[in-house]
Amino acid sequence: MAGKVITVTSGKGGVGKSTTTANLAMGLAMLGAQVICIDGDVGLRNLDVILGLENRIVYDITHVIDGRCKLRQALVRDKRFAELHLLPAAQTRDKSAVSPEAMVWIAQQAAEQADYVLIDCPAGIEQGFWYSVTPADMLIVVTNPELPAVRDADRVIGLLENNGHKDTRLIINRVRSGARAREQLDRVTIVETLAVPLLGVIPEDDGVTASSNRGEPVVLDPRSAAGQEFRVIAQRLHGEEHPVPPEPLPFWKRFFSRS
Amino acid sequence: MMRTKGILKGVQQGLLLRPLPEAWEVTLTALEETLREAQGFFEGGRVILEAAARELSEQDLRDLRTLLTAHGLELWVVLGEAEITQRAARRLNLLTRLPGEGGSGSVPVLPPAPAPALPETLFVRRTLRAGQVLQARGDLTLIGDVNPGGELVAGGSIVVWGRLQGVVHAGALGDESCVICALDLDPQQLRIASAISVPPQSRRRRVQPEVARLEQGRIIVEPWKEK
Fold first, then answer.
1. CB contact under 8 A, B162 and A158
2. Disulfide engineering: B170 pairs with which of A135, A226, B64, B178, CB 3.0-4.6 Å?
3. What confidence category does residue B5 fall into, taking pLDDT thresholds of 50, 70 and 90?
4. Quick check: B106 pLDDT over 90?
5. What is the distance between the alpha carbons of residues A214 and B152, in angstroms, rounded to a whole number?
6. What is the per-residue burial (b if ≥16 Cβ within 10 Å, else e) of A114-142?
7. Measured between CA atoms, how close is A213 to chain B, in angstroms?
8. How far is A94 from chain B (nearest CA, A)?
9. pLDDT (tens digit, 9 = 90+) per residue, A192-250?
10. What are phi and psi of B184, to 5 degrees?
11. Is the whole-model pTM more than 0.80?
12. B151 touching A (Cβ < 8 Å)
């Protein structure tokens, strides 16, 4: 099996990377795919909490890198879906314990056993960012409809481009509707600026915080609006046809197009 | 900072070279030693020779230029009071005063020192994102948008066929006749030669092609059309 390695990144912290990773991983597992998610935030692990798996951890990623256990031994199996596994981050080490080469080595092993390997990238553009994005076949950039988050997303997409990454997608998270929508950047502006394909738009949903606290990703909740959208994005990733929200052309392309 | 024995000093516009009072060869020898010790630290830098009252021949300047070029530096300006020095400098096509001095009285901007490998002109088709920089010695054309935080720097003029929201610097080597054009000119900052302009926040804009040029030391923006 040669699974697809997908890294979820954002530049800015707090936009919902770990929540997105957890929900997409679980959403893909719900479709029957074998999924391994890797917490790339060594030193500040939290993907295990969001997935509700923290008290099952025995080994972590640094144990695998140091050769103290096999990848298979470090993987924590989800309590709801046998298809989903987590490789937790270390809490007692920092990001210098992981190198891009080590992450590529781990991601390759993981991809042999799974259809999808999802890496939750830490915030920032330092070491943790580079080792998380290096093994990726596809990048998902998560942003919020606000200027600082979009600016950081733009910077990150630029770094990925410079580094030769071709397949970068966008998720806009925490999008409000109704009267409160006007305080936010509109979707068209964001997609125009970032000029990468839009994978999905997640509505603002108070239930997300509560579900993270309970360790039950919203994707499990059939009544949650955010959960519904995560399920749809998982289906899109899995190759099922779902119309993506309409995508505007970048400003300049409206004037000039190669075709 | 590197020890330069006082002979080479970083100033706002470039590297200031102060000759030693002894024979010209002594200065060249000391400079060579400094450059060798610096191991490429000054590479790409522009040198301003402060000759003061000293009389330097064309051959003296030629020797200096050869030495600097060998270490990846450029002899840029020769500041001297002696007529013979000034004439020698002009014959070698060197500036004899710093651009931006006198005239408009605006604060001289530090034009980024052009690295030796910069392309003469640049024609690029892409989105320039936050943190990305494009530089050219001459004119620069971009087909695409410049997002906030992106930066264009050119010795010549800049044309953006798209939305320009970043920072642009035309005439970065001092040419005040350069212009900046864009289909939608909405920059964070415009710079032409040594002038800087920050568009007013409240500026009501209609999206239309515009051109920015320098007029009497100030940057003006007007619709981009034939006159």
1. no
2. B178
3. low
4. no
5. 49
6. bbbbbbbbbbbbebbbbbbbbbbbbbbbb
7. 35
8. 27
9. 999 999 999 999 999 999 999 999 999 999 999 999 999 999 999 998 777 666 555 66
10. -135, 105
11. no
12. no
- Test the B interface: residue of A141, A252, A259 with most B CBs within 10 Å: A252
Convert the pLDDT of each residue in B113-154 to its tens digit. Answer: 545 567 889 999 999 999 999 999 999 999 999 999 999 999
Q: Which amino acid is present at B44?
A: G
Res A182: pLDDT: 87
Look at B183 and A255 and tell me if their CB atoms are within 8 Å. yes
- Percent of all residues in chain A with a pLDDT value above 90, rounded to a whole number: 84
B57-102 residue pLDDT tens:
989 999 999 899 888 888 988 988 888 898 898 888 888 888 765 4
CB atoms near residue B185 (< 10 Å):
24
Residues of B in contact with A250 (CB under 8 A): 127, 144-145, 162
Q: CB A250 to CB B147 under 8 A?
A: no
**Range A4-257: architecture per CATH:** 3-Layer(aba) Sandwich (3.40)
Q: Could you report the predicted ipTM of this complex, rounded to two decimals?
A: 0.76
Which pLDDT does position B216 carry in this prediction?
93
Disruptive mutation site among A154, A168, A253, A254 for chain B (greatest number of B CBs within 10 Å): A154
Interchain CB distance below 8 Å, B130 and A255: no
Q: Count the neighbouring beta carbons within 10 Å of the beta carbon of residue B2.
A: 11
Residue written as tokens 């009544």? A223
| Nearest alpha-carbon partner for B103 in B170, B199, B174 | B174
Name which of B124, B147, B159 to mutate to probe chain A: the one with the most chain A Cβ atoms within 10 A of its Cβ: B147
> How far is residue A239's CA from residue A138's CA, in Å, rounded to a whole number?
14
Interface of B with A in 161-200 (CB under 8 A): 161-163, 183-184
Per the structure block, which two tokens stand in for A204?
């603002």
Q: Using CB atoms, which residue from B130, B144, B163 is nearest to A154?
A: B130
- Closest approach of chain B CAs to the CA of A147, in angstroms? 10
Domain locations in chain A? 4-257
